[in-house]
Amino acid sequence: MALRLVSDFDLGKDVLPWLRAQRAALVAAGAGGGGPGVLENNYESLRVLNVERNGNIIYTYKDDKGNVFFGLYDYQTKQNEHLYTFEKDLQVVSCSVNRERTLLAASLVQAAKEGRRNELQPGSRCLTLLVEIHPINNVKVLKAVDSYIWVQFLYPHVESHPLPENHLLLISEEKYIEQLHIQVTQEDGNRVVIKNSGHLPRQRVAEDFVWAQWDMSEQRLYYIDLKKSRSVLKCIQFYADEHFSLMFEASLDVSLSDSGFKLVNFGYDDLQDQEKLSKHPTLCVFTNHTGSLCVCYCPNFDSWEQITYSVLYFHKGHGKTFTATLGRVDSRVTKGITFLSLDYYVAVYLPGHFFHLLNIQHPDLICHSLFLTGNSEVIDMLPHSPLQSLSGSLVLDWGSGKLYRALLNQSYLLEFLWNTRLDCEKLALLHCVLSCGRDPRRLEAKIIQWISENISACHSFDLIQEFIIASSYWSIYPETSNMDKLLPYSSLLTWDTEIPGITLVTEEIPLPLMKVHSFKGYWEKLNSNLEYVKYSKPHLHYNNSVVRREWHSLISEEKKGKRRSTVYVRNILDNAIKVISNLEARNLEPRLTPLFQEEDNHQRLLMGLMVSELKDHLLRHLQGVEKKKIEQMVLDYVSKLLDLICQILEASWRKHNLHPWVLHFNRRASAAEFAVFHIMTRILEATNSLFLPLPPDLDNTEKNEKVKFSIIVRLPPLTGQKICRLWDHPVSSNIISRNHVKQLLQNYNKQPRSPMMDKSSFSVEFLPLNYFIEILTDIESSNPALYAFEGRDNVDAKFVEEAALKHTTMLLGL
Question: How far apart are CA 582 and CA 580, in angstroms?
Fold first, then answer.
């Protein structure tokens, strides 16, 4: 499965055995009364109510008399604790407990049973209570109203000592949210009581909203209000004290009714009909540590043949609307669509139909996201019951009471990468696997093995290029923010090929309007992303074009006898020495292939220039990062690029059991040698356009000519002929000429020669050669179309004559 759901909590395994043990202990002791021991066999009422910021899970259950019990599972100690019992038959709407576990807030309604008397206050439908539970003491009624109320304690980031004041959110079905400030004091030792409980200060936070979402990890409240039929998304950040701030407002082009009311992540809501979920719009907000802000939206289903959903990438300034064809037309959509947050990705899942893994860091090209449909193993990978994506990668299955941590399944993705045939899936899977970041050396080895066996299987992109760029990017990306804007992520700039089963429309969207002027943490990164969208045109991704120009300039000056400043050249060569040293430090064993080990001044100039130019690029655009850190990042990045080239070649060498320096050019090549040579040519092809430092082209010295010629004659004949047409050299001309003459003479039938032929242009002193040239010319003239001479532009006619004369004299022993 593409997703791996790691169980963090299970009601059936982590709570139920404890409840049964408690009951058994009380039965054995002959005890009764309060506590969890009075639970008889009504275990089906056990369900999760809330997950607090520290990971603690609040749950509830009823005994046979209908009494309501609240319990807490401590995420750190893995222990259960009984919190409180209401000895009335009520239905729980919402519950929350403060960080110190001294106060419990709960909202309850009358249980839906005929003949039951009203357990609540006269005229009220919903009762909201605040209970002192350390020890169990006073109960204060916060609200007794006719509308539903949800409760949520704030969990600020503070030291471990108890807080003198707690803050509680009340969310009303009447479309307002208020914050209560609750001061507590200690009496008689450890007894915690509410101070001045007769009057609790309260503050209005939001009103007239139609949708709200709670982010328990970051203590943020997102909500939408309608202004003149326009949906506006707002975000409030809560801080350690009672202070809170409105952070931004953003216009949304979504259809929401002012008569509706939807809450996300405010605990379990069994008051809504789960079977009707698919008929209501689904909307949620996701953020991550890089400063991303995504709004995922799916309108009402209006077709069983296709579904439309949108993802607004506010941190990129655009949104995408996707239309997915449902895999099985005869299977109606009875379950709602699910959006899940997976760090650098957002997953869109429709049970039984499709699974879409969206790249939120680099959403520009659809090929960097993975869309799967039609494979039941893939699209049925998650539970079909309602799932809720909590903060981070936590996923809660309300129906079964299980809490999962959702992770990309690296092993499955690798296996899928080996088996898929579509280029778009190969590309998306490659990036998904690399983003996992677990055991990168082992991961790279597996990807290199895949590349070596599929080197010619991709037609839309260069496998080696994409791997080198993507792997180098992910090796440096986590070290600092904004690297996604400054370093290349992919070798592709465009993608025009359709993705089977899905279409999309991309539109620019209005950027959020920030409402504060001082930023820290996530908000600083989000603001930086928004500023980049507004002002950075064109993009700032680094490329080696500057290096290419400077390197050619240095080489040209060297040939003309000009020299740059000695200090300038020395600094560049020193950079190269640092890269080579860093490269050697990555490998404990000596390499089989001697890449980057020879004393090649041109190669080292290129290597040093890469370091120099990239360092200048990052220093210009990375604000607030120490120069030493930038220098080390540049050194690591350039070393990584070159190390990956070495790894690819080393893997090929080892796979075919070749030894160092095995490619001698004085004998016929084996199949293994040819396979390795093929990989070498593909590496050269991939790195040439990236302008990475590999050994430069050989010149035409006698030694290098022999090497080139020996390579050409060992290539397959057709490939060798193509290479010769590109190599403007006498040896190449010789090969072309001999092949052409061979072709002319293969079907030669002696015919009477034309007396009208002009012989003056072919006159040479050696008469046999003169006669031979006349014959060849006569054959060509007899059928010009058949004997058209390929590669004519690279052949020196006089050299053909000289080569033929020399060859003839050799054959005659003269």
Answer: 5
What is the full DSSP assignment across 663-710? --SSSPPPHHHHHHHHHHHHHHHHHHHHT---PPPP---HHHHHHHHH
Q: What angle do CA 433, 434, 437 make, to 5 degrees?
A: 105
716, HSE (Cβ side, Cα atoms, 13 Å): 7
Q: What is the pLDDT of residues 176-219, one digit of tens each?
A: 999 999 999 988 877 889 988 888 999 999 999 999 999 999 99
386-422 pLDDT tens trace:
788 988 789 999 888 999 999 999 999 999 999 999 9
- Kindly state the helix (H) or strand (E) to which residue 463 belongs, with its residue range: helix 463-476
Structural element, H or E, at residue 318: strand 318-325
**Average pLDDT value for the chain:** 84
As separate numbers, helices (DSSP H) first and strands (DSSP E) second, the chain gives: 18, 31
Strands 338-342 and 67-73: what pairing? unpaired
Tell me the per-residue pLDDT of 424-463, one tens digit each, with 9 for 90 and over: 999 999 999 999 877 888 999 999 999 998 888 888 999 9
Residue type, 377: E
Peptide bond into 538 cis (omega under 30): yes
Q: In the 8-state DSSP scheme, what is residue 13?
A: I
Q: Report DSSP state, residue 298.
A: E
Could you tell me the two tokens for 790?
């390929």
**Beta strands at 354-359 and 345-350: parallel, antiparallel or unpaired:** antiparallel
3-state secondary structure of 196: coil
Tokens 């003309």 belong to: 560
CA distance 135 to 788: 101
% helix / strand / coil in the chain, to the nearest 5? 35, 25, 40
Name the nearest CA neighbour of 470 among 440, 504, 439.
440
576 Cβ contact partners less than 8 Å away, ≥ 6 residues apart: 604, 605, 607, 608, 611
Distance CA 88, CA 752 (A): 121
Domain locations in the chain as residue ranges: 1-30+41-112+123-207, 544-738
Contact 686, 700 (CB under 8 A): no
